[in-house]
Write a structure and sequence with these properties.
This protein is of the alpha/beta class and about 210 residues long. The chain has helices at about 1-30, 40-45, 50-60, 60-80, 120-130, 140-150, 160-170, 195-205, and strands at about 85-90, 105, 110, 130-135, 155-160, 175-180. The termini are far apart.
């Protein structure tokens, strides 16, 4: 009996390691092209996220793992995001000008259109495509935003870690997410890949379900 249990545990451990390695390889490939079963492999990496991230902390850069997972989830969610009707954009407060005059509220930072940073232009362009843009001070602010503005699609602009964190938090809540990573991280004076954001907005506008 104990021998059978031991063999089952050994097989489970071996299978878990094998499927995790395959998922990592697929996620790395996803940075350059579409892959099959992106949703399945992203779920595998989500399930084993903590032990895999510990491995990356020890032997590599944990930001790489989040980058790969976000890439997989974007591929998996692209078709469903195209079918969403009520979309919003969520962007972190660290992209603001260092002397931003906008006040903070329960719905995040209220942009004053001062023109001191890219948010002013991005907000205006996004609204032309039917998006409302929210500047968040933290992931908890998204809950308040969704109470104020129900949405079935969220285009998240942030570092890969925060995008992945938000995607995991919203998983199973009937909200489709798609992420556009910042050009740099560090939660201070970060930069938006403006061209990429507009490119994705226009793509989803042309491919509405």
């Amino acid at each position: 009996m104990y021998s059978l249990i031991g063999k089952a545990l050994l097989f489970t451990a071996f299978f878990s390691i094998l499927i995790s390695i395959i998922a990592l390889l697929v996620s790395r490939i996803s940075l350059k092209r579409n892959v099959w079963l992106a949703g399945f492999f992203s779920n595998v990496l989500d399930f084993f996220y903590l032990p895999i991230k510990y491995f990356f902390y020890k032997f590599s850069d944990p930001r790489i793992l989040d980058k790969w997972i976000v890439s997989l989830k974007n591929i998996a969610n692209m078709s469903d995001f195209s079918k969403t009707k009520n979309r919003i954009i969520v962007i972190p407060h660290c992209v603001r000008s260092l002397d931003c005059p906008a006040p903070s509220t329960i719905l995040g930072i209220q942009c004053q259109n001062c023109g001191k940073c890219i948010v002013t232009q991005l907000r205006r362009d996004a609204e032309q495509y039917g998006y409302l843009l929210y500047i968040t001070t933290g992931s908890s602010a998204i809950v308040n935003i969704l109470k104020h503005k129900p949405a079935d699609g969220i285009l998240g602009i942030a570092c890969d870690y925060e995008i992945n964190k938000g995607m995991r938090a919203l998983n199973g809540k009937k909200i489709v997410t798609y992420g556009v990573p910042l050009l740099n991280d560090g939660c201070y004076n970060t930069k938006v890949d403006y061209k990429k954001v507009i490119e994705m907005i226009e793509y989803f506008d042309k491919n509405k379900g």
